[in-house]
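Response to reviewer comment R2.3. The reviewers asked that we include at least one raw input/output pair. We reproduce the pair for DnaJ domain-containing protein here without editing.
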Amino acid sequence: MGNIIVLAILGAVFYYIFKSYARYTAYSQEAFKNFSVSYESIKQSDLGLFVALVAKVAKADGKVDSLEAELVGIMFDDISSVFPEPEKTKDILKRIFSEEKNRLDDLEEIAHRLGSAIKRDRAKQQQFMGFLIQLAFVDGEVSENEDRVLQTIAEAFEFDPNAYHAIFDQFEQMIKNVHPKENIEDAYKLLGVDANDDMATIKKAYRKLVRQYHPDIIKAQGKDDAYMQEATAKTQEINQAYELIKEKRK
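Raw output as returned:
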């Protein structure tokens, strides 16, 4: 009976997502072509507010680990690409992240501001919330502090609790189904490198693959929830293979 209820909830969530995406307004170069790039304008924009929340989730467990840092850096590239003056925008996004990662006193304020800005667009809420949950899971588990930050953001967004828990549970199950590579040869194969390659070559291959398969907040627009899960699972596999190789070479 419990499984039937869960399936019914998931079915309702996916139908809701599908309907929401039909009226989704994309973040694109066309949408931002007349945007005046400055620290204040970026910081007050939807994507600037989102980066501030990303910073708080990434640092909620006390550290930004190497994979999180890699993904956040790629996210700066993804987001800045839709703005005029991408390099200037990227520097501003880095500044926002750096300023906000060690602050929780303004968490509710920023979450409410972004929630208000996207209140009429449930698909954007879904996209942002899903990405934040995905980020919390990217190191393999969600700490109590990360969970608390996510819950605070979800409440500020007035995000449907059933939808939130459905997404959270999906990522939790997905992480359990990602099995670390036990064989070093398989790890090399996954990264497309050779056992004789030096660590600089292996790291370059690792970063290239992470960039290729990372969950992209911009490209996720219009795609269903499976996109983020598949991207996260692949990123996990790549990272675990890389960590195994590093461990074996100590």
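The chain is about 70% helix and 0% strand. Confidence is low (pLDDT under 50) at residues 5-24. Further pairs are available on request from the corresponding author.
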